[in-house]
Write a structure and sequence with these properties.
alpha/beta, five-stranded mixed sheet, two-stranded parallel ribbon, elongated
Length: 167
């Protein structure tokens, strides 16, 4: 199993790994040692919190390393006038009777609240490869289905301003 990521995704993850290993880990280890010196560990809340933060950091490092090692690098260029990765799309949601603006991104950078839709989500899969004017049927489940019309497509590129998800 692999994750489809862009070169920028991998670069951002590697930067986070480097920061967590070189800067954050030594600080968290020092915090654990300081809290341990406070005395009885069974009732030492500071020690438990410091240990929890250190373990959370180590877990994130392992997660990112696994993502980087199993990543399949995908191209960003969609070409032509079809919807591709990082394109900004204006769609008309027929069921809600309103226009929506969204951007198709990799799963690692998805944030539906900000209009960043994963290419692997039902909406993302339905929109990829479509052109302005196309009617798109989105099937979330057997019970939840709706139609959208692609109004416009603004070609985008993979920039480093989109953050990767933290947890």
């Amino acid at each position: 199993m692999y994750d489809e990521l862009t070169e920028v995704d991998v670069k951002k993850m590697q930067e986070e790994i480097d920061y967590r290993v070189q800067v954050l880990r030594p600080k968290l280890i020092a915090d654990v040692q300081t809290a341990r010196a406070f005395g009885d560990l069974s009732e030492n809340f500071e020690y438990k919190c410091a240990k929890q933060e250190k373990n959370r950091n180590d877990s994130r490092i392992r997660y990112l390393q696994r993502m980087v090692s199993t990543a399949k690098i995908i191209p960003v260029d969609s070409g032509g006038d079809a919807v591709g990765l990082f394109d900004k799309i204006v769609v008309f949601h027929e069921k809600l009777n309103r226009e929506m603006t969204m951007r198709i991104v990799t799963t690692l950078r998805a944030d539906a609240g900000k209009g960043l839709i994963s290419k692997e989500s039902p909406v993302g899969r339905a929109l990829l490869g479509r052109r302005a004017g196309d009617r798109v049927h989105v099937k979330v489940s057997d019970e939840v289905q709706y139609d959208m019309v692609v109004r416009s497509i603004e070609k985008g590129e993979d920039d480093e301003t989109l953050e990767i998800r933290k947890y």
